[in-house]
Design goal:
The protein is an alpha/beta fold. It contains 15 helices and twelve strands. The chain has one domain: TIM Barrel (Alpha-Beta Barrel). α2 links the parallel β4 and β5. The longest helix is centred in the first third of the chain and has 29 residues. The relative contact order is 0.17. It is an enzyme of class 5 (isomerase). GO terms for molecular function: isopentenyl-diphosphate delta-isomerase activity. It comes from Devosia rhizoryzae. Homooctamer. Dimer of tetramers.
C-alpha cells in the first residue's frame, strides 16, 4: 500500500471518529433533557370540540393509512435518531423490531458515517430483515450534497437498508452554530431535484426542528419531492444542543440565542398543507402524545413523527418502545372516539376551537 493511500485511510478514520464522538455527545445531551426548544409547538392553542355522544364503537375505529406505497396500522413514523455507531446499532435494532411489531414506519438517522467509513451501526441488510413489511426510510444530510455526495451515495443509502424512500435532512441552523458545521448551501435545490428525478424511490425532505415554511415546501414540491416532514419548533432544538457542547463561551452564546428559533410545528403543518395540497406531509417536532398526533392530523399531516420522546425507550429494549408507542396509539384512538371520528379522514375534518384567548 502506498504512503498516500495509508494517509488517506488514516484521515478517513480520524474524520469518522470525530463524527462518531459528536453524535455521542448529541445523544447524551438530548437524553439529559438539555436540548429542548424554548418555542411552543402551537398545538397548545387548539382543542378539539368534545363530542359527548359519539355514536360509535371505539373498537371499530380505523387508524390505518397508506404511506409511501405501504399500509401502516397507525399514522406514526419513528423519526430519525442516532448516536455513535455502537449505541446506534442497538437503537436501530430495538426500533426496527418495535415498528415491525406495531406495523408503523421507521426512519433511520444519518447514514453519512456508514457511507463514508463502512461502520454501519445497524444500518445494513439486517435492519430490513428485522422489519420486512414496514415503510423504511434512509437518510442523508443536504449539506453532504455539496461535499461529494450525489446520486451514487444516495442509492447506496437506499440499498444498504432496502429503504422504501430516502430522507434529505435540512439543518442550516445547526450547521451555522456548530463550530465544525458545513455552511456552503449554494445550489442545493438543484441537487435535490436531480435526486428526485434519478433516485428511483420517493424523496422526502425534512427539517430537524426549525420547521419548513409553505414557500420553501412549494419549491421542494416543484422540484419533485414526494413527502415533506415539517419538523417544526417546539421539540428538540439543535441550536440548544450545540450550545451545550460548545467548547468556549462565545460559541455557546451564539448558539443559545437561537434555542427558540423556528416555525412552530402546528403553523408549519397548516402552511405546508395550504401550499402543497397534493404532497404527503409528516408532522413532527415536539409531538408529546397521541392528542398531539390527532391535532397534527387535523391540521393537515398524513403521518406524524416522534423521536426524542421515545429515545429513552429505544435505548432500553424493543418491548419498551412497543409500550411507549402503544400508549400513543391508544391516546389517538381515544381522541378519535371523543370527536366522533371513525377513521383518520373523519378526524381530519373534526371541529376544533382556538383556546389561546382563554390563556
Amino acid at each position: 500500500m502506498s504512503a498516500c493511500r495509508r494517509l488517506l485511510i488514516t484521515r478517513e478514520r480520524l474524520v469518522g471518529r470525530v463524527l462518531q464522538d459528536r453524535k455521542n455527545e448529541h445523544l447524551d445531551i438530548v437524553l439529559g433533557g438539555l436540548g429542548r426548544s424554548g418555542a411552543h409547538t402551537g398545538f397548545e392553542s387548539i382543542a378539539f370540540e368534545h363530542v359527548a355522544l359519539p355514536e360509535l364503537d371505539m373498537a371499530d375505529i380505523e387508524l390505518g393509512t397508506d404511506f409511501i406505497g405501504k399500509r401502516i396500522n397507525a399514522p406514526l413514523l419513528v423519526s430519525s435518531m442516532t448516536g455513535g455507531p455502537e449505541r446506534a446499532a442497538d437503537i436501530n435494532r430495538n426500533l426496527a423490531i418495535a415498528c415491525q411489531s406495531l406495523g408503523i414506519a421507521l426512519a433511520v438517522g444519518s447514514q453519512r458515517i456508514a457511507i463514508e467509513s463502512g461502520a454501519q451501526a445497524g444500518l445494513g441488510a439486517e435492519l430490513r430483515q428485522l422489519a420486512p413489511d414496514i415503510p423504511l426510510l434512509g437518510n442523508i444530510g443536504a449539506a453532504q450534497l455539496n461535499l461529494g455526495f450525489g446520486v451514487d451515495q444516495a442509492r447506496r443509502a437506499v440499498e444498504m437498508i432496502g429503504a422504501d424512500a430516502l430522507i434529505i435532512h435540512l439543518n442550516p441552523l445547526q450547521e451555522a452554530v456548530q463550530p465544525e458545521g458545513d455552511r456552503n448551501w449554494r445550489g442545493l435545490l438543484g441537487k435535490i431535484e436531480q435526486l428526485a428525478c434519478e433516485l428511483g424511490v420517493p424523496l422526502v425532505v425534512k427539517e430537524v426542528g426549525a420547521g419548513i415554511s409553505g414557500r420553501v415546501a412549494r419549491r421542494l414540491a416543484d422540484a419533485g419531492v414526494s413527502v415533506i416532514d415539517v419538523a417544526g419548533a417546539g421539540g428538540t432544538s439543535w441550536a440548544a444542543v450545540e450550545a451545550e457542547r460548545a467548547r468556549v463561551p462565545a460559541q455557546a452564546a451564539v448558539a443559545r440565542a437561537f434555542a427558540d428559533w423556528g416555525i412552530p410545528t402546528a403553523q408549519a403543518i397548516v402552511e405546508v398543507r395550504a401550499a402543497c395540497p397534493d404532497v404527503q406531509i409528516i408532522g413532527s417536532g415536539g409531538i408529546r402524545n397521541g392528542v398531539d398526533v390527532a391535532k397534527a392530523i387535523r391540521l393537515g399531516a398524513n403521518v406524524v413523527g416522534q423521536a426524542s420522546g421515545i429515545l429513552d425507550a429505544a435505548i432500553r429494549s424493543p418491548e419498551d418502545v412497543i409500550e411507549a408507542l402503544s400508549v400513543t396509539m391508544t391516546q389517538l384512538r381515544v381522541a378519535c372516539f371523543c370527536t366522533g371520528s371513525t377513521n383518520l379522514a373523519a378526524l381530519a375534518a373534526a371541529p376544533i376551537r382556538d383556546v389561546s384567548r382563554f390563556g
